[in-house]
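Input structure tokens:
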């Protein structure tokens, strides 16, 4: 399955969760719901994936963690904030670069309509 096909499935599941739960919950509630729904679709899904940071010849464990990784192809950074900031985009792009992946979805569930909180972030590699 391509990154675009996966992103369509992820966005569809996210919209269904948002319709069911609405805005206003903690980020962790949306993460667990999305993780569960994606697993139920038969996708390989991992939570809180450690993202090692390499500098020259050393590896540093400095606490970077991907919220959700789908099929080892698409990174999901999930937020429940008033507004997405440039820092949220930079974080998602950094994870893409560190993992050598092409596509990330930055999802803000604290929107009246989730479609306003969906951002695709691409790594040009």
């Amino acid at each position: 399955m391509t990154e675009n096909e996966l992103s369509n499935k992820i966005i569809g599941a996210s919209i269904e969760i948002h319709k069911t739960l609405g805005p206003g919950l903690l980020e962790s509630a949306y993460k667990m719901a999305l993780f569960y729904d994606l697993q139920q679709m038969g996708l390989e899904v991992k939570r809180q994936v450690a993202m090692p940071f390499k500098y020259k010849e050393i590896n540093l464990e400095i606490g970077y963690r991907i919220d959700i990784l789908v099929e080892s192809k698409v990174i999901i950074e999930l937020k429940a904030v008033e507004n997405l900031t440039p820092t949220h985009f930079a974080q998602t792009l950094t994870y893409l670069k560190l993992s050598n992946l092409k596509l990330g979805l930055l999802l803000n569930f604290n929107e009246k309509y989730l479609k306003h909180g969906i951002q695709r972030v691409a790594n040009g590699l």
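Residues 94 and 116 are 23 Å apart (CA to CA). The helical segments are 3-21, 27-40, 86-99.
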